[in-house]
Design brief:
With about 750 residues, this protein is an alpha+beta fold. It contains 28 helices and twelve strands. It has a five-stranded antiparallel β-sheet with strand order 3-2-1-5-4. Strands 7-9-10-12-11 form a five-stranded mixed β-sheet.
């Protein structure tokens, strides 16, 4: 099946004009009269016979001709007499007026309920026609005949009647909107329908073959004087415009325009009419309208009733204006309330606020404006990311916040929060998402009471945010423009906070990556340094061990053969120095080319005791030590030799800290991650920052040259790292230093785990 063709705006206008062309045409009598340009073109006897064949038309034409201002009274008793006494133009005017009114006359129920007031419209047309006739009769220098002036005034609203007949519902809606807004209808007609009543009236006038001056009156009567083109009948158009402004001011009918009417005096002067003559017409127009209404067969009405009707219309118009002012006042009050709320929200919200702070400000703003008890907000930085939920009280107090994994559709795909901001997507996910969300909205909230307000509805790949309420925002803020402004302010704040949070997260990740890179570079430099040191020590050990062995051997021989005590001490010192060099080479080899650790089930208490005894022998320390090991601590899976050597270095370092106070050695487990912690603490002089920074560097020492090799702490760290642990230092000048050994994975595996590992 082919797609239905949607007509363009131009095609829609042509369709409307085609319907105008289908309206009833004038009778043969009227057409014959209109085709006559002069009396020579008409066979008067034939014309008289044609008119007299229609008794209703005959009666109305004679009534139109028996006007008090003509002074003929009942002298005109036949069509022949009317033609002879009044001439062709008067008869043309009378017949045309009667014909048009009968073709387009309102129905009995056409009193404006649908927007178009048929009776009021024709009352207004007759009023304008009567005013035109009176002004033309008093302004003889204008060259406008009263009969033609009357016809022009009567037919000027032809387009409104045509529009109400071809588009009754659409045209009625346009008129109601114009009345609500207090504006003239032509602009709205062009905006909402595609053409105005001026164009429709000209099309109907062309369809009926009306004279050119009547077509232009229908088409141009509403133009400002300065925009009026130069035409032969410009004064006729100006006369109608001036008479219409006068009748609108006097409320002489319904005109379909609700804006401020043009000033009568200004129009009169612009179209070269005497303002005094125009104003004087107001005192006679009621009698003329009553007479003309009766002649046209509208209704029997007295001049007093015409006046009273004008007063009633004025009161109705005044009441309408009062209602409009009340609505505008209410709208202005609501607008001020919303604008104040937006201003207050913007003052509360700062550009660098967190998402939680921004959503709290939105909750407070919505509580003040909309009310209710549910203020739950959801935010998602991008599709695929978790949803952040924040629930607030009516005082903007945070009641609940959590990160939610979005629900999944039947296909298994996670729901994007962006879908809740799009009506088309909302229909697809509502049965899945809304019941799921209701459990987070509030304990006593029914699913049917939930209202979702999209805050950010941008691109599907961007951030999204929604506000869940238990009140209808449209009821609280009827104006769509105000709702959009408020929601836009909320949404912009949430988007800014999400972007700020995302930027902050990226900055933190970048800083972390930078730290990782820096640490990796340090480790790489250290590894390269250790590799060079290893190559150097391997060569040095090979070249120096043989001479050192010879020196140690001869020193021992000398010590046994020399009788002189001083010389024997010197030989002993030679042996000790060679041993220190040998130990230094061994230490360098340990750092550069460490051994493979051999972890076995080990007693930590025993290892510490051995380390303390070795430290006392090595340093001859005079201070006491206090060892604290939990009695329930099980055996550990470590390399006892490597751990003992590392602890020896740490205890020796503590013993040489310049204190005679007790050295504390305490063992415990970390309750968070179950690491084994061994702390060695002294109460010595502590380390300055520059010493602490280089404490683990090989050959670094803050003691006088020749006192220490500066390899103790670097050797201790290397030994602990071989077992997967770490060594850290913390110090305070004048209070001492603490060395902390941490060993993860120290527990002895169970039998089952050991078997699995063996398999």
């Amino acid at each position: 099946m082919g797609r239905r063709h949607e007509p363009s705006r131009t095609e829609q206008v042509e369709l409307i004009l085609d319907r105008v062309d289908q309206l009833p045409t004038l009778s043969p009598i009227a057409q014959k009269l209109l085709s006559a340009a002069s009396p020579d073109d008409v066979d008067f006897s034939e014309l008289i016979k044609l008119i007299e064949t229609d008794p209703s038309l005959t009666g109305k034409v004679l009534s139109m001709c028996r006007r008090a201002d003509r002074g003929l009274g009942n002298a005109v008793s036949s069509v022949g007499q009317a033609v002879t006494l009044l001439g062709l133009e008067a008869i043309q005017s009378a017949v045309l007026s009667v014909e048009v009114f009968e073709l387009l006359s309102p129905t009995e129920d056409d009193h404006g309920e649908g927007g178009f007031d048929g009776f009021g419209h024709w009352r207004g047309c007759v009023s304008v026609a009567s005013a035109c006739e009176l002004i033309a009769a008093s302004n003889t220098s204008g060259g406008i005949k009263p009969d033609m002036a009357f016809t022009a005034g009567l037919l000027h609203g032809l387009g409104r009647a045509a529009m109400s007949m071809v588009l009754p519902e659409s045209y009625g809606r346009v008129l109601r909107v114009a009345e609500q807004r207090g504006v003239d209808s032509a602009t709205l007609e062009r905006e909402l329908i595609g053409l105005d009543h001026h164009t429709a009236g000209r099309r109907l006038a062309e369809h009926w073959g009306l004279p050119e001056f009547l077509r232009d009156v229908v088409w141009l009567y509403d133009l400002p004087p300065q925009s009026m083109p130069t035409l032969d009948h410009r004064n006729t158009i100006g006369l109608v415009a001036t008479a219409r402004a006068l009748c609108r001011r006097m409320n002489m009918g319904w005109f379909g325009d609700f804006g401020q009417p043009a000033d009568v005096v200004d129009l009169a002067e612009a179209f070269e009419l005497d303002p005094e003559v125009v104003e004087s017409t107001a005192s006679h127009i009621h009698e003329r309208v009553a007479e003309r209404c009766a002649a046209l067969g509208m209704d029997e009405i007295t001049p007093v009733e015409v006046l009273l009707e004008s007063v009633m219309r004025a009161n109705t118009r005044l009441a309408s204006l009062n209602r409009s002012l009340s609505k505008r006042s209410l709208h202005a009050s609501q607008q001020k309330r919303v604008l104040d709320a937006i201003g207050s929200f913007c003052s509360m919200h700062q550009g660098s606020s967190s998402v939680a702070e921004t959503l709290a400000d939105i909750a407070q703003s919505s509580s003040e404006l909309i009310g209710g008890s549910v203020f739950t907000l959801l935010a998602q930085s991008e599709p695929g990311r978790p949803w952040k939920l924040f629930r607030f009280s009516d005082q903007a107090k945070l009641l609940r916040s959590e990160v939610l994994e979005p629900p999944a559709l039947k296909s298994g795909a996670p729901v994007s929060l962006h879908w809740l901001t799009e009506p088309s997507q909302m229909m697809q996910v509502s049965t899945t998402v809304i019941p799921w969300l209701s459990q987070y909205a509030g304990e006593t909230v029914e699913i049917g009471d939930l209202r979702i307000v999209p805050l950010i509805a941008g691109s599907p790949g961007g951030p999204a945010a929604v506000l869940m309420l238990d009140r209808d925002i449209e009821e609280a803020i009827p104006s769509e423009v105000q709702r959009r402004a408020l929601v836009a302010a909320w949404g912009a704040a949430v988007a800014a906070s999400l972007r700020h949070e995302q930027s902050r997260t990226l900055a933190e990740e970048l800083a972390e990556r930078h730290r990782d890179l820096a640490e990796a570079q340090i480790r790489l430099a250290e590894t390269q340094s250790m590799a060079r040191l290893g190559a150097m020590t391997a060569g040095a050990a090979h070249e120096m061990n043989n001479p050192l062995t010879v020196i140690k051997g001869y020193s021992q021989v000398l010590r046994t053969r020399i009788a002189d005590g001083d010389l024997r001490n010197l030989a002993e010192k030679i042996g000790q120095a060679s041993q220190e060099i040998s130990d230094l080479i061994t230490s360098l080899n340990l750092i550069a080319d460490p051994p493979e650790p051999k972890k076995i089930k080990t007693s930590i208490q025993g290892v510490i005791n051995e380390a303390v005894m070795a430290s006392r022998t090595r340093t001859r320390m005079k201070c006491a030590s206090r060892v604290s090991v939990p009695s329930h601590l099980p055996a550990a899976m470590v390399d006892p030799q490597l751990l003992r050597q590392a602890l020896v270095e740490l205890v020796c370092n503590a013993a040489e800290s310049g204190t005679d106070e007790i050295i504390e050695i305490r063992v415990q487990t970390d309750p968070l991650d179950d690491r084994l912690l061994i702390m060695v603490k002294d109460h010595g002089r502590g380390m300055p920052p520059e010493t602490l920074e280089h404490a683990f560097d090989p050959f670094f020492s803050d003691k006088p040259a020749g006192r220490q090799t500066g390899l103790g702490l670097s050797r201790a760290r290397r030994l602990v790292e071989l077992m997967g642990g770490t060594v850290s230092l913390s110090t305070k000048l004048g209070e001492g230093t603490r060395a902390l050994v941490t060993l993860p994975g120290w527990r002895v595996p169970s039998v089952e785990t050991a078997r699995e590992q063996a398999a």
